[in-house]
Amino acid sequence: MKRSTRQVARLWLAALALALAAPAAAGELVTFPSAATPTEPASAIRGYLDAPTGRGPFPAVVLLHSCLGFPSDRKAIGAMLAGWGYVALYVDDFSTRGLTQTCLVDFPEGVADAYGALAFLAARPDVDTARIGAVGYSQGGDTALKLAVPRIAAAFALPGGARFRAVAAYYPPCGNLRRTRLALPTLILVGAADTVTPAATCATLAKGQPNVALTVYPGAEHVFDDPNFAGGKALFGMHLQYNRVAGEQAKAALRAFLATALR
Length: 263
Fold this sequence. Notes:
The chain is an alpha/beta fold. Helices cover 30% and strands 23% of the residues. The chain has one domain: Alpha/Beta hydrolase fold, catalytic domain (Rossmann fold, 3-Layer(aba) Sandwich), CATH 3.40.50.1820. It is built from seven helices and ten strands. Strands 1-2-4-3-5-6-7-8 form an eight-stranded mixed beta sheet, with helices on both faces. The model is unreliable at 1-24 (pLDDT under 50).
C-alpha cells in the first residue's frame, strides 16, 4: 500500500526512536532503520559503530561496503576513522536481508540505507550534525556519489535538516551517473588499471565540476585497498587486486579530504 510522505516520516521517526533507546558503545554492533520511502516501509538494518574517546560532538562518516560485503579490514577502517576523530558507522546492507553479495544485480536499497545511517548518527549527542559525510567502496561508491545528486538528496530530506556534507568514493562505477551534476564536495579514488570501474568514466564525470576531485593511481586495479586480494583474485567476472602503495596513498588522500570537507 502506498503511504503519504507524512505517514512515512512518522513511521521512520518511530523506528529511529526505538533504535536509539539503548545508547551504543564504540565498536558495537548497532541496529537502526533504513530510510522509509513512499512505496517501501522502514526496515531494520545493522552497522558497526566506532567513536573517538571523549564526549564530542565529533564529525561523522557513514561507510558503505561493496557488492561483496564488508572488506577484510573493516575493523581497521572503523578504528582508523575513530583515530582521526570521526564517529564511523559502517552500514551492513546484507545481514538482515539474508544477502551475501549483490555483484550480479542492482542494489537500489543502498541509498535508503545510507540515509537511515545519517538519521541514526544525527540523533546521537556525540555527533556534530553539521559535519557528516559518506565514504563508499565500489557499489557503495556508486551509492556515495548518488548522495551528492540534488534530486536524490531532496527525496530523502530528514526532519531537522541533517544532510550529507561531503562524499568520497573508492573505485565507483562512474558511468552510472555519466554527466550528472554533483552538488557536494566529492573525492573519487580509482586505479588506472581498473577493468571493472574504469578511471576514464570517472574522468568524464569529474570534468567541469570544480567540487569533484579525482585521483587515479598508476597500476592499481579494482579493490586496490583490501589486503584480502593480495596476489589478485577473480570473482563474478571481476579481477580484484590489492596494491599496498595505492591503498596507503588513498588513506592519506581520504584523511586530507575529510579534514577539509568536514572541518
